[in-house]
Amino acid sequence: MHAVPVLLTVGAPPSAGLLLSALLLATWPALAAAEEGERASAGAAPASYADVSSPAGAVAELAETPSIDGVDAGSADIAAAPADSDRGADGAEALVAETGTADSADAPVEETGASDSANAPVAETGTADGGDAPVAEASAGDSAAALATEVAAADSADALGTQNSETDNAAALAEVAAETDADAGLNPPGAEDAPEQPASLETAIAGLAERSFKVKQQAADDIAASGDERAADLLKALLNGDLYYRKDDKRIVFAEKSAAGLALTDALTGESLGEVGSRDAAKITVNNLMRNSLRTDIATLTLASPDPNVRLSAALEMVGTDDADTLAALRAQRSEESDGRVADAIDLAVAIAELKSEDAAVRLAAVESLRGSLYPAARNALGGLLASETDAGVLAAAEGVLADIESRVQTYKIAETVFFGLSLGSVLVLAAIGLAITFGVMGVINMAHGELIMIGAYTTYLVQLAMPNWIDYSLLVAIPAAFIVSGLFGIAIERTVIRFLYGRPLETLLATFGISLILQQLVRTTISAQNVIVENPSWMSGSLQINPALSLTYNRLYIVVFALMVFVALLLILKRTALGLQVRAVSQNRAMAQAMGVRSARVDALTFGLGAGIAGVAGVALSQLTNVGPNMGQAYIIDSFMVVVFGGVGNLWGTLVGGLTLGIANKFMEPWTGAVLAKILVLVFIILFIQKRPRGLFPQRGRAAEG
Amino acid sequence: MGLLTSMRGDTGGQIMLAVLAVVAVVVPILNLAVPESSPWHLSTYTVTLLGKYLTYALLAVAVDLVWGYLGILSLGHGAFFALGGYAMGMYLMRQIGERGVYGDPVLPDFMVFLDWQQLPWFWHGFDMFWFAALMVVLVPGALAFVFGWLAFRSRVTGVYLSIITQALTYALMLAFFRNEMGFGGNNGLTDFKDILGFDLQSDATRIALFLASALALALGYIACRGIVTSRLGRVAVAIRDAEARTRFIGYRVDRVKVAIWTFSAMLAGIAGALYVPQVGIINPGEFSPLNSIELVIWVAIGGRATLYGAVVGAVVVNYGKTYFTGAFPEAWLFALGGLFVLVTLFLPQGIAGLLRMLRRRGGGTDGPKTASGEASA
Amino acid sequence: MNWSADQSIELLRRDRAFDFSSQRQRWLAFREAMRRDRQFDFMISAKDLELDVSHGAILYIEDLNVSFDGFKAIDNLNFYVDAGELRCVIGPNGAGKTTMMDIITGKTRPDSGTVYFGQKIDLLRLSEPEIAEIGIGRKFQKPTVFEHHTVFENLELAMAGDKRVLPTLFAKLSGAQKDRIDEVLATIGLAEHARRAAGALSHGQKQWLEIGMLLMQDPHLLLVDEPVAGMTHQEMDRTAELLLALEGKHSVVVVEHDMDFVRSIAKRVTVLHQGSVLAEGSMDEVQNDRRVVEVYLGE
Amino acid sequence: MRKRTLLKSLLMGAGLGLGLSASMTAVAEEDTIKVGVLHSLSGTMAISETTLKDTVLMLVEQQNEKGGLLGKKLEAVVVDPASDWPLFAEKARELLEKEKVAAVFGCWTSVSRKSVLPVFEELNGLLFYPVQYEGEESSKNVFYTGAAPNQQAIPAVDYLKDELGVERWVLAGTDYVYPRTTNKILEAYLKQNGVAEDDIMINYTPFGHSDWQSIVADIKKFGSEGKKTAVVSTINGDANVPFYKELGNQGIAAEDIPVVAFSVGEEELSGIDTKPLVGHLAAWNYFMSVDTPENDTFIGTWHDFIGNDKRVTNDPMEAHKIGFDLWVKAVEKAGSTETDAVEDAIVGLETSNLTGGTAKMLANHHITKPVLIGEIQEDGQFAVVWQTDGEVPGDAWSDYLEGSKDLVGDWTDPINCGNYNTVTKECLGSQAAE
Predict the structure, then answer these.
(1) Nearest Cα to D242, choosing from D198, D283, D276?
(2) Of the candidates A40, A290, B336, D295, which lies 20 to 30 Å from B164 by C-alpha distance?
């Protein structure tokens, strides 16, 4: 961070405009060319544009990495606390840009240096120390700045010709080492030049209405830098896309959807500006780069937030920082931190920083405090340490801790794989269980099963259309709805076609195959050939973070549970209810059942309806995982048959166990074999398994099964 | 044994062969002799189309042999068809030689841009037609033999058998989709130039291929007919109707099954080999389980357990497909799906059954033996 | 598999089997061997094992045990049949009659015990077709004939002879074989139905057809399961004659519920109960046996 | 007489085949110019291709309102190859031989194109192929109005590398030729730019792959090792929804690991709940959100034609528009629809594309296109965050592949060859034979 105060003191005001043009330079090579024209400093530039396909690419390539390393090492020499690479780099580049004004000869090169990711640091400083930069830092940073210029210049020179290779960096380092002190003394004046003052919120915010993301980002950073208490809310609004600007006067506003279109309130004053048509105000779009820096900005602004989750994310954002002030802030927060997870995160951040300490004892302590931490950052930091560490004791400790972490991570990995297997398995079970009724119990080779699933999924879609503002509850409605709709389709199919085909399973195969074609085309023509959107309710998205190494996604979690619920329900229906009894009777001996006065026609219809309904319910679940489209049924029909047959036709337990087994087997093979081969192996396995157990896992017993 | 004697008492078959002969004579004339201008001219498009139908017909016969007479519902016969096709495709690929886009004398194009250095072992020999021709029957045959030997010895029957045949073709499909396999992945094998030195695009070659298909169908038909009329054929039907009983009177059921199953697979392979040069591409899609199901449906529509029915079914369904996809591109699936449903509901014996009914009207007594709809499921 | 001496003997024995023409055996044998290799067939053909009944008995069942998940269907059963004998087996349902037949014909494998056909042949080592080949024929409780074949074809298929794949493919009916079939047709009284599909026959006719198929197999031992179920009295009498006619040339085991019928044919009767022999002897002895009466009338 | 009924009915059956001959020979009426539409309306590809069919119908209608072409009305002939590759070849033959169409607009997947290619070359027809593809092809009879790899993949990677500072790369794709080739090109390109072997992770999945748990977990791990990571996705249509859903659920935000997709456009997004996707990228040559008058009118007419202003437009649609315009211009220039005349006329012609530039038909039958990088927004649209300066000419043969770096396609004299080796100065392959 030491480079940056200087950037404020020296750089900011004069260089603002230039920075801006430098930024544009990166994105719009056209502009770049123009600017070159103005400056008669074609020196390096043409070459650089010449040799790479995308000009912007070339520009950015030029001064990037080496200068980073340069400053890093350099500031390490000078400064009390070392500068972490990206901060250092930013500082350096910003400065480069600044000095660019002084020395026009290498202007293009330096601008390119500035161009690629310059301005985050501006924000950093602003927030980190609201402008009271101690002079010591200034001079120190200043020298860092100066040498950065050297480095940038030196390197960009190399960069033109060759790729940035180790040797370049080495050269850079050497230079840095040589010239540091000299430069440190040479140009102090920069420090006094500009009175430092963060851009005020009002001025900063205007930039948001611009079209260029670079400008917007600059504006956002200025906002963060302003140290204004409204900043955090503004930035959050920006991040969430609630921030609009009025097209006529480019006034920045909060907007909410309203009857007329949008209800606006001024972003700064908070005064209501009434409603306007949705055309009159435009959302301020943000891109990845902005989101990144926004998140960091917000984090620094919200480290002290009352909400522990906010604090946690803030702390995690800061993991890996070396910035003394940030660390200080963290330590301060740590002392009054109540929430355990946040405390851990903070400790992690602090420890990782301390790994770089000169004092071996401190490093050792840090290593120990990382023991058992599952955060990837911890592993990476330790890994890094192993490479650089000189002190034997620390080295040993680090290795030990790392090994310990690795082993724990491994166990969680296995747990994860099992979960993946289970969830895949339960999807198979869901898809197959309806078939276990229509095919297993009734002996109907129901090729339309997949389409019944599809109908269930489309029902979900329609339900969501019907209740757009209640997405979270839509599934609760969709499940019974899908059951009924698919069930009715099933009954219709049974009454119109299948009932004429009992005892002739192959005819049922042909007929239902025909039906499946019809249903598909029906959906294509009535709804659309395209996939349709089925939204995930909020409670289905995201994942349950058990620890940094193991998290289970909610939708999968729910689906595993759901599959089991469906299974149990079905089991109860078949074992406990009168219908179930009749179903089993009919399936075992139709004639006898009829003789006993079972109205087999009705039972058949209901049974098939039940199977179809379950398929529909499965459709609801699948709509949460995958696309809903006319072809979705095809994707599951074959797997479903595999599961049912593997488990043993006519045996629900078989379907359950079969499905889960195949799922888990598949997932354990995948890492070794890859997805495709895994599936193939599973199929081969089924084929061979059927050789051993010609009637599946749980064969049907008794004479009925013979023949 | 005199195969032709087997045609006795098979009116449907005789007529089918007669029609086939007529077509085989008329088509070349209409295509080659009749001038373009004449309304009677038969476009090469149609010839190729008919050629394709004939190979499908042969495939259908192969399926009917195992399903209609042996009671094995194979949902994976497409696999044997495709394997035969690939064997032929590999030969045609090798024939391209330097005319590939990269001009590599040995490697097919797809290997060049996946920059493979030399030919995988299983591609060797396919530059020779006789070898390819041998593989066309051996590869499907061998696969069928191993699969059958396993499955039938351990007495896998009914839907279980059907589903694992499906698993077989499904697994093969996924495998052939993988580019590492060295069969061109999803694109499969295409852009063929010529066969045995004759340009594939020329009308003469197409006619020749068409005639070859017709001949293959005729021979295949007669051979199958020979089997089903032999005592072995009667044993097969016996197995279909009462497997255990057949075993108790001393027949090695598993071996009878393996033998006929393997033969059927070889027929399918030949059909595939004739199919590829006519449509000009073979790719893993041919392995898709849905294809295999569809071809069972041809047989069902034609009339199970009547070989000529299988032929008729294959031609009718595919003609229907060609016609509908052109005539009502939006709605043809309704038509096709509807056809399947209606046939199963109202023509359980398929078209052949319909014909028999007509004959009965005419006072016929002896219908050919047919399966009850029940396969050993 | 390791080639022990007697296995090679088996091979040699096997050769004899395939000479129908009775000349140039070796050459035929050699060709057969080749052909078998082509068919990847390493099974020992049981067809040529010699049936040795020198000790009088044709079927030895000793210490036989079978249980289906817990339930003991056959409990330490000992049962012997003499060559040429006609034996009736009776017993209440679940006594294990059918199970016993299943074991003899290789359909079910016992948990323990031995089943020998003559002195030499261990039936437990053979498959159903092999058992059929060595001359054990079976008629099922529920008449199973090939419904889509004509009566004639049913008999043709059952006819003894080489039943491997290729021979079957190229098989032709010789005059002698035709005569044999006609003969059997006459015996079972279905001559005028020869061309009808078996499916179209009446229940009783099917029973006969099945017996006819047994005869065509020309087995040493016939296992007849409930031959007269669903027959009229006349039909029953004819069946009785039929079976009696077989006595002497063949050994016959009849399982039947119908006591009158049993009395009409039986010399020796065995009563099975709960999977083991309850009583054995002439009809009268058995009928007066107290335990038998208990079993049938008691509780 | 019994025989006769049987004979009749059987002839009926077999005669169906012959029956074709009559219908085949029906000649097109003279007063219209037929335009073939060869897009799957059923089967797996219908999802993407039906839209293109409608697009062509719209273009034809527009042209007829303008008074047709050469004084004749245009007539669109639609057939359904049903996502069945051999059927594509058959239908192509039908269009060219039976329907005698002047040009065909169609195909989506590479395999369908490969399947019809020999037919078009044999019957000397015209095919306009509107989808981005793997390159490595230049046929006399095909015009590639979609992007070649150098018009999509490479600029996108440059953007990630330079603008987002990405250092580690996951190349994830469906296992077929387009992803394979694209990834090979990218791998070569990245290595040239000094990316280490183990900073590149390549992963292939089958079509319609729906269970992404493990793979996404791997990507997460791969990305958590300190360096900025991005996923370059050539995952094919259907598999994308579950992929993105899994990304979202496993908490991989665009800021952490951005995914840049080459096969995900507005059409695909219209089937996805885009909230979790915001910030992920796609590289195309056209976005519906592009703000130009041409685009506005195009979208307008599209909505009027389809009668639903929810329907989106996408890149292949623009490609068809460009292709169609160029064809029309070429026919007018040549004064006939005769294939060779059109082929000669069309090379070098220019028409304005929908993003404010111009598309020029090059000698290798590819066109010039701008490359746009867009970020997915909540409304299922893309916000352009980067674009090339001017158009990039399509390169049939990649410079990064061993086999083809010396090849060029040039259908103008004197070369007149789809795969001309600039080193050996000879024309390779089939064209050489002719």
Answers:
(1) D276
(2) B336
Report CB contact under 8 Å: D165, A679: no
Q: What is the mean pLDDT of residues D367-378?
A: 92
3-state secondary structure of A322: coil
- Distance (Å) from the alpha carbon of D71 to chain A's nearest alpha carbon: 35
Nearest to B255 among C132, C133, C165 (CB): C165
Same domain? For A588 and A441 the reply is: yes
Whether A333 and A282 share a structural domain: no
> Which ipTM did the prediction report?
0.85
- Cα A669 to Cα A242, A664, A680, D239: the distances in Å are 46, 9, 11, 20
Q: Is the pLDDT of residue A2 over 80?
A: no
Amino acid sitting at position A415:
A
- CB spacing of A514 vs B337 below 8 angstroms: yes
Output phi, psi for A552, to 5 deg. Answer: -110, 130
Q: Tell me how far apart the alpha carbons of residues D395 and D414 are, in angstroms, rounded to a whole number.
A: 19
Between C12 and D212, where is the model more confident? Answer: D212
Spell out the domains of chain C, with CATH numbers in brackets.
46-297 (3.40.50.300)
D242 touches chain A (CB under 8 A): yes
Q: Which residue has the tokens 């004659």?
A: C241
| Angle at CA of residue B346, ends B341 and B349, nearest 5° | 100
pLDDT at B88 over 90: yes
Portion of chain A with pLDDT greater than 70, in percent: 70
CB contact under 8 A, B250 and C144: no
Residue in B closest to A646 by C-alpha: B160
Cβ neighbors of B152 (< 8 A, separation 6 or more) are: B253, B254, B257, B258, B261
User: A451: burial class by Cβ within 10 Å (0-12, 13-18, 19+)?
Assistant: buried
One domain for residues A511 and A625? yes
Same domain, A689 and A557: yes
Q: Which of D22, D78, D404 sits opposite B329 (nearest CB)?
A: D78
Alpha-carbon distance D181 to nearest alpha carbon in chain A (angstroms): 19
Give the DSSP per-residue string, B218-279: HHHHHHHHHHHHSHHHHHHHHHHH-HHHHHHTT--HHHHHHHHHHHHHHHHHHHHHHHHHHH
Claim to verify: residue A328 and residue A416 sit in the same structural domain: no
Residues forming beta bridges with residue A475, ordered by sequence position: none
**CA angle, residues D62, D64, D69, in degrees to nearest 5:** 115
Residue of D nearest to B39 (CA): D25
- Which of A178, A199, A233 terminates a domain? The answer is A178
Task: Please answer yes or no on whether C169 and B371 come within 8 Å at the CB atom.
Answer: no
Looking at the structure, tell me whether residues A292 and A313 fall in a common domain.
no
Domains: count for chain A: 4
Expressed as residue numbers, the domain containing A497 is: 410-531+553-702
- Identify the domain boundary among A133, A161, A178: A178
In a domain, A541, yes or no: no
Domain edges within chain B: 5-361
> What are the structure tokens assigned to C198, written together?
């078996």
Considering only CB atoms, which chain C residues are within 8 Å of B246? Answer: 146, 157
Stretch among A198-212, A400-414, D94-108 having the lowest mean pLDDT: A198-212
Q: Express each pLDDT in D222-272 by its tens digit.
A: 988 878 899 999 998 778 888 988 888 888 888 889 999 998 889 888 877
Q: Are residues A473 and A353 in the same domain?
A: no
Kindly report, residue by residue over B299-349, the tens digit of the pLDDT.
988 988 889 999 999 999 999 888 888 788 778 889 889 988 988 888 888
Of A610-619, D302-311, D423-432, the range with the highest mean pLDDT is A610-619
Tell whether A209 and A307 lie within a shared domain.
no
* Domain-located, residue A354: yes
